[in-house]
């Protein structure tokens, strides 16, 4: 089967074209660097099936980042039958820079001029035939989004793939061409494939190339020394890059004719928006407000704070009761859209479990079996499932922000701040992806060039609370809101998300100034243009999330709740225990053993006989974070003595049940959320971190780092929340840590022995 590879700059529309060609639903994002691993699919509209490979987005074939290495090696080693070079036509010159390099490889190349719809909309014109004549390979104008020209592209690509092609270079006639030609002959003599490409890279003094062809590299080095700087300059890489750009602007750029009219207007509209949204001072507050609006829409039980402002009046109080069980709000306020959806689903699930329970009881089924089905299975599943609407809504909002191009602006703003902490704005993209799921986010760190920056980023990604942690945040926040009698669950979830971000920033700062030092590479991301998010791709994304969630609910979460139910209903000598004796169960026994460790965090020994449930819940979260609440759901029903299993409890009610059984206070509850958010993530994320880390030692340290961070931050929250004056102790502690780091970095402290120990280990 033939294989065609899609190559192009980040954000040029590769994945959109890939999805169009293969009918798959890979994630499309409006910012650079969304695809990192290559991905394959089938195109079936030609006489034979074609495998399509979506390569990571790259600006050049020089190995500055791991993704450039992936793409380069794929094209050189796997030798696709045709490379479809996607070019963002709204950004012609920059995109053609990569084209000039692809042309040097001995592989059929076809150029797809993408986003032609936008070019037309701006009133500009691109003469594809002229460009084709100049470049010397087929050029087809397409719109990957609308599907225009895609079939023609594939037909011509297919024709291309039938004939081999010899590499050509735009450096012909340039200052270094003699040298390139000599290198090429030498490499050909040595039987090297793609001699032209390698020769050019050698002359650019590309690291990989020098390692692969040391002898030829020596010749280049000698040549460099024999010629004086005045003729050639000394930076060969810069000379080559310069001649590429010159060639592009002299030969290719003429194919673009600016219509000028609306083009300019559009530019200023977007510029105007950017002047506000990326403002030096206002950029961050605006981001925080937008983020809060998202949380308010998703989680608030007092929408627009109408209740708190007293704007609802008596009519509302009597009205809201009429619409079913307070689905649209409570006496305190109107529910936000997310909460309405939550209430709807919650009322459905509780009537289902109620009906099941009734049927089983009246059918004479044994009480333990009813308990197993209603508490064990339904209780666990439904407590998590009721949060599905809010999870999806939050994802929808995040995707809207991302697809419109706003998130890329946030990365740009944060770059200014991050840079001082030793991170580039580039690191922000994988972090934001972490709000969805840590696994792809960790893979995405491959876009970072500096290895230490990468390690530091992977470590803090789980602090960006993922979708699976959302039930924990929401359920516990709901429990707190009930306990304190406020409807501000949105404020609590929002603050917890911010806490995650702040802890991440502090942790990076600490790492980058101690064990993970390194340069901050310049951030060359160009801001993508603002785009209307596409309903279709949003729907696809949500559908994907939904499928993933349902699958997880009926596999991992279901299995865990069943196990939890069993170990909480059997004692160590395998006797079955009824609900009011689960304190004698295996689970309780193990939980109580670990419980004292968590006393400084507020959910340990001080909670008395039911405290172990918190420990157990946190541990089940290591399998899947949703389990934390599923475990509450399973156990809550058994906890209050005299509680009859007449229906499964929702997530918030389960937490409320635990609160009243243990008397746990607000600081400890917040510490509990923080602990689950910051501690070791689910095993899938752990496995990914292990795979992406450069060494076992760094990985082991990462596990330790997660445990330590969650422990320290949670106990800080609990202790300060409970006894405010402990803040002074913490402040003194942190001041000491910072002083030690600063003094050490200035060379004023000498740890002699410790330092030697570290160095010895590093050498190993
Ligand atoms: P990749 O990074 O190269 O994989 O780019 P994506 O496929 O993720 O696309 C980046 C952005 O460009 C998304 O917002 C797409 O909706 C948008 N896009 C892609 N192709 C077109 C097109 O032909 N026309 C327009 N107007 N937008 C496009
Ligand atoms: Mg992509």
Characterise this structure.
The strands form three sheets. Strands 2-3-1-4-5-7 form a six-stranded mixed β-sheet, sandwiched between helices. With 764 residues, it is mainly alpha-helical. It is globular, with a radius of gyration of 30 Å. It has 34 helices and ten strands. Magnesium ion binds at residues 14-15, 34-35. The site of guanosine-5'-diphosphate (GDP) has 24 residues, from helix 1 and helix 4.
Mean pLDDT: 87
Main sheet characteristics: 6 strands, mixed
Shape: globular
Structural class: mainly alpha
Number of strands: 10
Poorly predicted sequence stretches spanning 5 or more consecutive residues: none
Strand content: 5-15%
Bound molecules: guanosine-5'-diphosphate, magnesium ion
| First-last Cα distance | 46 Å
What's the tally of helices?
A: 34
Strand order of the biggest β-sheet = 2-3-1-4-5-7
Helix-residue proportion: 55-70%
């Amino acid at each position: 089967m033939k294989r065609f590879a899609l190559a192009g700059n980040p954000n040029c529309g590769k994945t959109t074209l890939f999805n169009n060609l293969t009918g798959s639903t890979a994630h499309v994002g409006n910012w650079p660097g969304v695809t990192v691993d290559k991905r394959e699919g089938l195109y079936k509209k030609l006489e034979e099936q074609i495998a399509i490979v979506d390569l990571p987005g790259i600006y050049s074939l020089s190995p500055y980042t791991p993704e450039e290495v992936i793409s380069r090696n794929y094209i050189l080693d796997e030798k696709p039958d045709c490379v479809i070079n996607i070019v963002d036509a709204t950004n012609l010159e920059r995109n053609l820079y990569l084209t000039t390099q692809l042309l040097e490889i001995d592989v059929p190349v076809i150029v797809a001029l993408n986003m032609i719809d936008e070019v037309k909309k701006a009133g500009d014109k691109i003469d594809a035939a002229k460009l084709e004549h100049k470049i010397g390979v087929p050029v087809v104008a397409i719109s990957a989004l609308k599907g225009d020209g895609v079939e023609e592209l594939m037909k011509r690509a297919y024709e291309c793939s039938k004939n081999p092609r010899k590499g050509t270079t735009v450096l012909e006639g340039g200052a270094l061409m003699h040298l390139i030609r000599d290198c090429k002959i030498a490499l050909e003599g040595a039987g090297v494939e793609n001699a032209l490409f390698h020769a050019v890279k050698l002359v650019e003094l590309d690291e990989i190339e020098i390692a692969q062809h040391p002898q030829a590299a020596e010749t280049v080095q000698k040549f460099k020394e024999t010629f004086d700087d005045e003729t050639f300059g000394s930076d060969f890489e810069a000379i080559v890059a310069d001649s590429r750009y010159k060639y592009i602007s002299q030969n290719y750029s003429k194919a673009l004719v600016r219509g000028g009219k609306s083009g300019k207007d559009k530019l200023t509209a977007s510029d105007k928006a950017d002047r506000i949204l990326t403002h030096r001072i206002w950029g961050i507050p605006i981001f925080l407000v937008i983020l809060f609006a998202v949380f308010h829409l998703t989680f608030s039980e007092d929408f627009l704070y109408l209740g708190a402002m007293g704007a609802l009046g008596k009519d509302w109080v009597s009205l809201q009761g009429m619409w079913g069980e307070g689905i649209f709000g409570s006496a305190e306020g109107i529910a936000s859209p997310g909460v309405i959806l939550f209430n709807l689903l919650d009322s459905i699930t509780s009537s289902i479990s109620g009906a099941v329970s009734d049927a089983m009881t009246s059918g004479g089924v044994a009480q333990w079996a009813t308990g197993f089905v209603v508490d064990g299975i339904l209780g666990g599943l439904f407590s998590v499932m009721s949060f599905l609407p809010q999870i999806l809504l939050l994802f929808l909002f995040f995707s809207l922000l991302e697809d419109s191009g706003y998130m890329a602006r946030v990365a740009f703003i944060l770059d200014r701040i991050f840079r001082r902490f030793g991170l580039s704005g580039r690191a922000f993209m994988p972090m934001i992806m972490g709000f969805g799921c840590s696994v792809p986010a960790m893979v995405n760190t491959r876009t970072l060039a500096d290895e230490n920056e990468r390690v530091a980023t992977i470590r803090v990604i789980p602090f960006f609370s993922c979708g699976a942690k959302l039930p924990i945040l929401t359920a516990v926040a709901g429990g707190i809101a009930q306990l304190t009698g406020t409807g501000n669950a949105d404020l609590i979830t929002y603050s917890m998300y911010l806490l995650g971000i702040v802890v991440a920033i502090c942790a990076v700062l600490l790492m980058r100034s101690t064990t993970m030092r390194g340069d901050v590479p310049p951030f060359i991301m160009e801001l993508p243009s603002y785009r209307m998010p596409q309903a279709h791709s949003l729907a696809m994304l949500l559908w994907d999330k939904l499928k993933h969630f349902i699958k997880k609910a009926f596999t991992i979460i279901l299995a865990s709740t069943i196990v939890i139910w069993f170990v909480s209903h059997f004692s160590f000598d395998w006797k079955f225990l009824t609900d009011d004796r689960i304190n004698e169960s295996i689970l309780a026994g193990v939980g109580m053993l670990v419980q004292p460790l968590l006393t400084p965090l507020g959910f340990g020994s001080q909670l008395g006989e039911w405290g172990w449930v918190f420990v157990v819940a946190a541990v089940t979260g290591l399998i899947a974070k949703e389990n934390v609440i599923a475990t509450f759901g399973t156990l809550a029903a058994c906890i209050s003595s005299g509680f009859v299993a007449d229906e499964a409890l929702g997530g918030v009610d389960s937490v409320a049940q635990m609160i009243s059984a243990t008397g746990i206070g607000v600081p400890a509850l917040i510490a509990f959320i923080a602990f689950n958010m910051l501690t070791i993530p689910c095993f899938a994320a752990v496995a990914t971190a292990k795979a992406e880390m450069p060494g076992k030692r760094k990985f082991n340290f990462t596990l330790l780092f997660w445990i330590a961070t969650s422990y320290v931050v949670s106990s800080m929250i609990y202790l300060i929340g409970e006894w405010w004056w402990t803040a002074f102790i913490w402040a003194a502690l942190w001041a000491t840590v910072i002083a030690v780091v600063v003094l050490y970095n200035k060379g004023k402290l000498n740890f002699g022995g410790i330092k030697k120990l570290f160095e010895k280990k590093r050498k190993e």
